[in-house]
Amino acid sequence: MISIRRKPQDEVRSRFGRVQETARHRSVLWRQGASDMAGRASEMAGRFGPVAGERIIIARGWSAPRLRSAARYVETGLAPRVSTLLNDAAGRVEPPKPAKSGRGALMAMMGVVAAVGVAGVVATRRGAIRDMTKGSGEHREDATSADSMTVSGADVDGQVQSPH
User: What are the φ and ψ backbone dihedral angles of 159, each rounded to 5 degrees?
Assistant: First the structure.
């Protein structure tokens, strides 16, 4: 079971002090070891310097054509494959595009339906007026027909006068 009781401050400080002292001691030892290694490395470089320089030139001459070959392979063989792989992954990760609502088509259909409705109402009213005027004789003289407005009833200035 874990105790949640706080430890005395002097005990905490003494532990922290021991950790700090250990860290200081280790850093001093590390610095000494690093300076010893640096001294040995400079001695070795002085002894082996001319031979090492020649070997480095040989290694560079050997590695340069291989690096060029690797670069050509990456450009021609590997890069297109990686590009294709990344494009495929992007296609799988990309969220689906939202479906178009078809609002334009819906509005066009509503416009066509409204036009047909208006045409139907106009045709129905014309038919009703025609039936009213032809069906009863009493309303026949009230209705103005296109025949009564011919040129024969026109004034001198070309205006047509109604018989009523």
Answer: -90, 140
